[in-house]
Here is the input.
Amino acid sequence: MSTSTAEIDGDDLLSESEYRDRLRELPPSAKLVAKVLEGDAPLSQGQLAEESLLPDRTVRYALNRLEDADLVGSRYSFKDARKQVYYLNT
Here is the structure.
């Protein structure tokens, strides 16, 4: 998982078609987590589990798959530095 606290760099963002192509290959849980992040990011893993109604373990799996595809990034939360929050790379 990325632990960068830097702002999202414009060069790292994906085009809409590239984002959709990468997302198409992922499991449904990853697609649901990405959809939740589209509407309300950044979110912690716990917030994603609550919003998506998926178990914590499934959210962890989905986030790992999304990070492997470079669709999601993470940083430490400004509210609680013990937690990471996730955002889309689009």
